[in-house]
Structure formats: C-alpha cells, structure tokens
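Study both lines:
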Amino acid sequence: MDIELNKPFIYDLTLEQIQDWTKEQGEPAFRAGQIFDWVYVKRVGSFEDMSNLPKPLRDKLLASFRFITLTEIAKFESKDGTMKFLFGLHDDHAIETVIMKHSYGNSVCVTTQVGCRVGCTFCASTLGGLKRSLTAGEIIAQVVQAQRILDPHNERVSSIVIMGIGEPFENYEATMQFLRTMIHPKGLNIGARHITVSTSGIVPNMLKFADENTQINLAISIHAPNDALRSKLMPVNRRFPFVDVMNACKYYIEKTGRRITFEYALIGGVNDRPEHAEELANVLQGMLCHVNLIPVNYVPERNYVRTPRDDIFEFQRILQKNNVNVTIRREQGHDIAAACGQLRAKHMEKTTG
C-alpha cells in the first residue's frame, strides 16, 4: 500500500488533537491555532502554503498528515442555481455533494457514507448497498470544498443539511466530530441552529443525540403513518419499529425542548392517500413537530411515480386541518438528477458496466 494512504487526514483532527500533536513535536501551543486557521479559515490545500509556520514544522506536518483531495468527476448546475457534484475519493469510490442557493444564503448537503445499507425502496442511494463509511475529515472536506467554490463570489456556506448519501446515525462518531468542527468558533463557525442532521430512525443513536446537549436540528425520515407500510418502504423499520422511533422522537423533544422535523416522501398511490394523511395526523397529534412533504423524485430503478399536484395539496390540507405544522419542500435541482444517489448510480454503471 502507498505510504501516503496510511497517513491520517488533517481534517480528521480536532483542534484539541492538533494541540496534542504540536505539543508532542515540542512546538509552542499557539502553533495549533495557526494550523487550524490555515485549514478552515484560509482553506489552503497544502502544508507548504502555511507561510507563517517554520519550514521544519511544515515538513513534520507533511510527513504526518495528508490533505483530502476530492476529485471533481462531474458537476451539474441547475437553472435555479443548485450545483451538484460527484467527487472521487482516494480509493476510487465516489460521493455526492450539493450546494443549494436560497434567499437566506447557501446550504450544503453532505454525504456521510459511500452507499447505504438502510434500503429505502424509493431511494437511489441504496443501489449497490453500503461500501464504507466516510471519516469525519471526508465529510468536512465536502463543506470546505463547497466554501472554496463560493469564496471567489464572496459568499459563504450559511447552513448544512446532512441528507446526502448514507445514514448519518450509522456513522455516528464521525458525524458528531464533523458537526463539532463545523460549529467551532475558530473553524467554519456555522451556527448549530443552521445545521440539520437527518436519520431514518436508528433509535439507539437518536437517544444518544438527544443527550448531546446540542442546538443542531434533527429530522426523521418517516415516509409512512404506520408500522406495516413503513416496513415495506423502509426495511430499517424491521430493526427499529415505528413505535420505537416515535418514542425516541418524544424523548428527544422532552429532553431538548426542540421541534423535530418529519420528512415524508409522497409516492403516488402508495402512501399519499387521504387516509394516510389522517392516520399521520393522529400519530403526530400534540407533538412539537413539523412535517416536510417531499414529492418523490423519479428513480428509474425504483419504478415509483410522483403524487399528482392536487393530491399533494390535499395531503397538506388534511394535516393542517388537524393542527399539524406542514410545508411542501421547494424543489431544487430537479433538472440535474437531484435525487440522492442518482449521479453516483450512473457513475457506477459506467465504471462497472
């Protein structure tokens, strides 16, 4: 194996770990802050660029660590300004990252795993299964890369959604380290309330997340109002049944006092009928929550169809009638294979076909 591949990524280190490393090297304590600043504020791509560090220290950094290089395999830009990237990793795997333009700023959607084992039947991310989890640094690198793309326009990443390929709570420790680095005041300094992590309902780590004492938002992919239908759409429901997921949600709300978001993908003729809306309203009655209705993206391999426009509004109306906060997600990047995992699936076809 290439010796370079045995070196950890500099992005994988917290400020505290960099402080420990500089101390071990006999360097003054302030050097760690300088290194962290070069990585996250100045966003350099090599140790040689860290010009206020002595040459021997730069040489030590080069010998000990490596930068993550995300190779741009493909880039698509939508009419609405959404940019979707397929990035190659050092081991020839590929991941997706999306920059979305909003009136309130730029949001980045990051990937936490190469593939996914959760198996949602309407999602392209699960095609081919799970290859591996990303390190914290590989998740961080996506946001740094997005910020570099925005830098020439004097714009910044103002919010993050962890809703790309993979299940963040099946890569929990790396995801939490990523989050801590994102909100660090000496790093990218993104407000915790401007970050949302989405899970399909990995109950033990939902409970753990509730105990983290963080202001980061939590979203749950629910997609059905009952156990039987959810198991058909989301095989993960057989591991963590609907009732357990809902109890974990209630624990989170009780522990944090924060509102939870339920993501509900509407699939034509499957989970979008008025009776489904009534049942969902009954389940969520009295909970501090918000429902985000998502007209499902067409994925050829999955053969699901979009819910007709009038039926989407009727579903929304029924929830509102039952005093459930609900919005319909504004579609972005619909013209550039916006569904999670579609670019990667096409890339896999080309490289393996």
